[in-house]
Design brief:
Elements lengths: L1 H9 L3 H28 L5 E2 L1 H15 L1 H7 L7 H7 L3 H16 L1 E2 L1
Antiparallel strand pairs: 1-2
Helix pairs in contact: 2-4, 2-6, 3-6
Length: 109
């Protein structure tokens, strides 16, 4: 909330946009991290599930990064106007959590 208030007073919205994009990804990491620790203890070959990252991770990363891409780079992106007009970060936060979780979940042993 403090970053949002500060960005409203100083007209510098980038710290707020970076926070609402990066923080949910870390939440997704932390949700998957205990299972990853259990998998690390197993003595197996590591692999990476590219299909899961491409099918779920990349679209969720796109949705999570819509505010930064549309404001900072000035791009006219698909669905960007709807997210910015609503002003609600629930959908982008959920996409960030999904991306963080899928990124760690795609590491397999």
């Amino acid at each position: 909330m403090r970053l949002r208030e500060e960005s409203a007073t100083t007209f510098n919205i980038m710290p707020y946009l970076i926070f609402i994009t990066i923080f949910p990804v870390f939440i997704g990491f932390f949700l998957r991290f205990p299972k990853l620790i259990i998998e690390i203890k197993e003595k197996k070959q590591w692999s990476f599930d590219w299909i899961k990252v491409v099918a779920i991770g990349i679209p969720s990363l796109y949705i999570a990064m819509i505010p930064i891409l549309s404001i900072y780079f000035g791009l006219n992106l698909l669905f960007a106007k709807e997210f910015l007009l609503l002003g609600d970060t629930t959908f982008t936060s959920t996409a960030g959590i999904v991306f963080g979780y899928v990124l760690l979940d795609s590491l397999k042993k």
